[in-house]
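Before the break, one more example. Copy the sequence into your notebook; we will annotate it together after we see the structure.
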Amino acid sequence: MNEKLLLDLVRTRMPYGKYKGRILCDLPEPYLVWYHQKGFPEGKLGMLLHTLYEIKLNGLEYLLKPLRQL
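Here is what the structure looks like once it is written out:
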């Protein structure tokens, strides 16, 4: 995994929608599953949400915890 990508997941806020303003790594898994079924948005945000979906799906959230303190 790319460290910059993981840092973006703990620093970037959701720009719109129900969870506007929430840090991406704090988005609930059902919301990511909904996006997976509906289709992720284009661009960097979509790539970050898809990556976060894969992280949560595979139980890898522990990779993000140390980065939250940086």
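The mean pLDDT is 94. The chain is about 55% helix and 0% strand. Try to locate both features in your own notes.
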